[in-house]
Amino acid sequence: MRWSLSAFLFALTGCALVPSSPPTHYYLLPDPPPCKERNPFGGTLVIADPVVPAYLDRSELLLVHRKGSVAVDRFRKLLEPYDRAVQRLLILSLRSGISGTVVPAPARGRKLEVRLLRFHLEAERGAVVEALWRLDRGRWREERIAVTPSGAGVGAKLQALSRVVGELGCRIARKIGKDGEKSRSRRGFPAPTTARATATGRASSEVLRAPDELIADPSR
Which of 8, 89, 115, 120 is the most buried (most CB within 10 A)? Predict the structure, then answer.
């Protein structure tokens, strides 16, 4: 009995010496800001499931350094898979950037395919995305976008990731809108004018920055 009591007390002391892990925080990427322009597009635009690179088959936030090393934040994770998050943000962005209906696949309409080559945070450039996209199985087009976070907190980083996907959606909206105008002109129809979106109420800067105040950083 004396030995059992000593072993029990030793076990309690050993457990007390083991440091506890920090709590895991889960996040949703916030909605992107609306596009500055609303481009003409007739019919329904169907967003296929985006293809993401294999290194995004995880839920943790990533930070890529200049020499290629990757820091995986085991205690800060997304609540949804990266491909679902990208699809959700693209739909929100495109709904503000074109005049037609935007829905996720499967549905009937004109099909937009997006393949992400890169989507992460970089120590030097902030949030980056490199993507290929095509409409109705046409030619692939490439987009490269970087957004500088407004601060070092997790809120600014999440907002920058959201902004970079939102800007991708706005670029796609502008280009498919211009393609539609050229097609109408070749057929002899007048091209509709492009309306300015008034949701933001102000002109935007050429430098893309993400506000930090929308999401609190639990580490502060």
Answer: 89
Burial of 70 (0-12, 13-18, 19+ CB in 10 A): exposed
State whether the Cα torsion 160-161-162-166 is positive or negative: positive
Q: For the chain, state the CA radius of gyration.
A: 23
Name all domains of the chain by residue range, CATH numbers in brackets. Answer: 23-210 (3.40.50.10610)
Q: Compute the average pLDDT of residues 204-216.
A: 38
How far is Cα 113 from Cα 101, in angstroms, rounded to an integer? 16
CB atoms within 10 A of CB 31: 15
Residue 54 tokens read as 């294999």
Q: What contacts 108, CB < 8 A, 6 or more positions away?
A: 44, 46
Distance CA 204, CA 41 (A): 23
Q: What angle do CA 178, 184, 189 make, to 5 degrees?
A: 135
- Tens of pLDDT, residue by residue over 40-76, are 998 999 999 999 999 999 999 998 987 778 888 899 9
Over residues 125-182, the pLDDT tens digits come to 899 999 999 999 999 999 999 999 988 889 999 999 999 999 999 999 999 988 765 5
